[in-house]
Write a structure and sequence with these properties.
CATH topology of chain B: Amino acid/polyamine transporter I
Shape of chain A: elongated
Radius of gyration of chain A: 20 Å
CATH superfamily of chain B: Amino acid/polyamine transporter I
Order of helices and strands of chain B: HHHHHHHHHHHEEHHHH
Largest interface: A-B, 41 and 44 residues
Order of helices and strands of chain A: HHH
Strand content of chain A: under 5%
Number of helices of chain A: 3
Number of domains of chain A: 1
CATH class of chain B: Mainly Alpha
Largest sheet of chain B: 2 strands, antiparallel
Distance between the termini of chain A: 47 Å
Strand order of the largest sheet of chain B: 1-2
Number of helices of chain B: 15
Helix content of chain B: over 70%
Oligomer: heterodimer
Number of strands of chain B: 2
CATH architecture of chain B: Up-down Bundle
Distance between the termini of chain B: 48 Å
Radius of gyration of chain B: 20 Å
Chain lengths: 76, 364
């Protein structure tokens, strides 16, 4: 619920910003920012609907876990 | 209205505050769990290791010649590969750490101070000043660092000097009980977190008004933060003993709670809270600035500032899932140094070598 409020505030803040960007005709800024905001809102919606997002740390563990265990064995 | 230049002194203070944030609370426990009572030796080892790397970062900063790191990468590696590498670097390193720092922040505050406040309130409350500061530009952050550094230093010494009467130097003995390997292993963790994070300070190099001092700036800020870590680790182990320090998540907080003289001079733990907020603020501003500035470079935007809101929203949502529980976090902390070193040492070194080889090829 709190997340929904924060998402609303972020959306409102961004829309105000887009008006400035549109007025200054900075199309590229607007598109990139809108894409990032869409990613943020999608992730937020997923987490609001109780879908567990995987922790980005899992990926680090999978990639570097073997190296870490090897060094730990070597230096103990 | 806003200038985009910071002085070398402001940058150095900003780096020190950045290095203190998160590491300040997590480090003593992390080091003691590997190196036991020799944790302080690993601080010295890591600092010496870092000093060997400083010339590499300084050489890269010199080669930027006022360009941003992204422009430099494009020049050396070609437009597409340089852009892709910048994107991967920015998202995979500073932005990733940004997410982790956000969850560290609320982890400590909800454990110790506000157990019933939802984590997201603490994180969002912190992001507001961070966003405001970045909207004002990095010159303002530099000036804030100049002001607040001395507050941090004062509170740090007020808290930790009060511990000296309670230390028992015998807790630090025997030195090197398990040989030199455990401190060496622990020093790898310290080197990767926070020292090789210096790599993304290269993104700040074009905003510094004096690039020639870069080497002494990096070495100086590492020495200051390193001696603070050394002091803190020695005192934590001296007061609590290695077994206790190794099994706590926030030993540098717990150790301050032991200060009590005559039932009057006590309750210093709130100092740790203030230090935590101040240093995390500078850490988050630096990480978010580097991310936004790098992305703005890759996508050729006019201003990094339009990206701030969207980036912090993504960071906030991801921070909620980054550390599902403490056990998971402590386990994934182990491979982290090798991930950090890939970005912090391997990539800058490869770029530097590529540049040197290219230059020599042109000459002959």
């Amino acid at each position: 619920m709190l997340l929904a409020i924060i998402m609303g505030v972020a959306l409102a803040g961004s829309l105000i910003e887009y008006r400035f960007l549109a007025r200054r005709k900075q199309k590229r800024d607007l598109i990139v920012d809108a894409a990032l905001l869409a990613v943020g809102l999608t992730l937020g919606a997923l987490s609001l609907s109780d879908i567990d997002l995987p922790s980005p740390l899992t990926f680090v563990e999978q990639l570097f876990g073997p190296t870490s265990r090897m060094v730990a064995k070597l230096l103990s | 209205m806003t200038t985009h230049k910071v002085t070398s002194k402001q940058l150095a203070l900003w780096f020190i505050l950045h290095q203190l944030g998160s590491a300040f609370l997590l480090l003593p426990g992390m080091l003691a769990s590997m190196a036991k009572q020799d944790a302080w030796i690993s601080v010295i080892l890591a600092l010496s290791g870092y000093m060997l790397l400083v010339p590499m970062y300084a050489a890269l900063a010199k080669r930027l010649r006022g360009r941003t790191f992204h422009e430099y990468l494009e020049k050396v590696l070609g437009k597409w590969f340089g852009g892709a590498l910048t994107l991967a670097f920015v998202v995979g390193y500073p932005f990733f750490i940004f997410v982790l720092v956000l969850s560290d922040l609320s982890e400590f505050v909800t454990t110790v101070f506000f157990p019933e406040t939802p984590a997201i309130v603490i994180q969002a409350g912190m992001l507001l000043p961070v966003l405001y500061a970045l909207k004002l530009g990095i010159a303002s952050i530099g000036r804030a660092a100049e002001l607040l550094f001395f507050v941090v230093l004062f509170l740090f010494f007020l808290g930790y000097l009060s511990l000296i009467p309670g230390t028992n130097p015998a807790q630090l003995l025997p030195i090197l009980e398990y040989g030199w390997k455990p401190p060496l292993h622990a020093s790898i963790s310290l080197l990767a977190f926070p020292y090789v994070e210096t790599a993304f300070l290269l993104f700040l190099a074009p905003y510094a008004n004096n690039i020639r001092k870069w080497k002494s700036l990096l070495a100086g800020s590492a020495l200051v933060s390193g001696s603070m870590f050394l002091f803190m680790t020695l005192l934590s182990i001296g007061v609590l003993g290695e077994a206790l320090v190794a099994n706590m998540i926030f030993p540098s907080y717990t150790v301050v709670t032991t200060i009590s003289y005559g039932d009057f001079y006590e309750r210093f733990e709130v100092i740790v809270g203030v230090l935590w907020y101040l240093t995390i603020f500078f850490r988050l501003t630096l990480l978010l600035f580097v991310t936004a500035d790098g992305l703005a470079g890759v996508f050729r935007l006019n201003d990094y500032r339009s990206l701030l809101i969207a980036l912090s929203l993504i960071g906030l949502v991801l921070a909620g899932s980054a550390q599902p529980n403490a056990v998971f976090f402590l386990n994934t902390l182990k491979p982290w140094p090798y991930y950090g070193m890939t970005f912090g040492i391997a990539i800058p070194l490869a770029v530097l070598l590529a540049d040197i080889v290219k230059k020599n090829g042109k000459r002959s």
